[in-house]
Amino acid sequence: MNTQPIAVERINLRASIQAKQVIEQAAQLIGTNLSAFMLNQSYEAALRIINQTQVVMLANADRDAILDALENPRQPSQALRDLKALAK
Question: Domain coordinates of the chain in residue numbers?
C-alpha cells in the first residue's frame, strides 16, 4: 500500500548553470533525482524556518516568571479596572 501523497502541484524555477550542476551532483551523491532532491531539501528548510518562527525559546528564569504569573496572577490595577468599566 502506497502512503505517499500524490504530487499534483508544479514548482518551476530557473537556476544558473553552476547552481544546477552543484544541485545535480548533490542529488547523485545521495542517490536521488534532481526533482526529489530539490523538493525534499526545500521542504525540510521550510519546516525549519516555520518551526524557528513559531517556537519561543526562554531562559529558565523567564520560563519560571511566566509560570509564576500564570499560577499566581496579580490583582488588576486601577487603570485596568477603569478600562473594564468603560467597556460596559
Answer: 17-87
